[in-house]
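haha ok so turns out i had the wrong file open the whole time. this is the CORRECT one, sorry everyone. sequence first:
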Amino acid sequence: MTADVQSDARLLEHRRVWERKDVLRIVYSDYYRRMLELAPVGPLLDIGGGSAHVKNFRPDAVSLDILPFPGIDTVADAHQLPFPDGHFASIIMLDVLHHLDRPIVFLKEAARVLRKGGRLLMIEPGITPVSWWFYHFVHQEPVIMGQDPFAMTEKMSGKDPFDSNQAIPTLVFGRANGLKRLAAAVPEFEVKAVDWLSLLVYPLSGGFKSWCLVPEAAASPGIAFENRLPAVLRRTFGFRIFVALERR
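then structure:
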């Protein structure tokens, strides 16, 4: 993914929405909690930091993005990380993988900069029988289920860093065939967890849109209730996929 490295008005808008939407911060607090609880002790890299929300939860994190923004420590392409081998104990990513041109190239690069036993933790759009309708007809980013994320000659997204295919994480991690191909393509990683979450509170929050249909008082109880639901319900109704990979 390439871009003219300069401030982007969309990141400024994200920061403004973040600061004024209490429900959005509650939703993302749960996301960061999930990832950070499984992050081994040691240096942490936040990839695709955007408007650098991670600093609210882990101030010592190294935040990387292809576009500069206050709080971003390193401006670089995620396909070519400017760090030595085995430098980090963990990498976290929130809504990043589905924006990358070459997901498998990136995963191999992530494995390179992780220590043995280090973890790559990510939360991405998850395509389920329910969420597909929302992502396909309402959300501005495309869902292309016919794309092959393992095809090294086909670009998964365009030149703009905000271009994407929201199906990519599900195609790689949400299907048995994808996991089998992942094991062959990136043997450096062991899949430790794949889970589904965010049934109602997240989609009704409006994300980084200006609107929100969830009262602030209902957000935390709603998320706690969703997290206790059986896996089969979360796999059917969830809007997010959570993935934990461990460096062998």
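The first helix runs from residue 9 to 20.
again sry for the mixup
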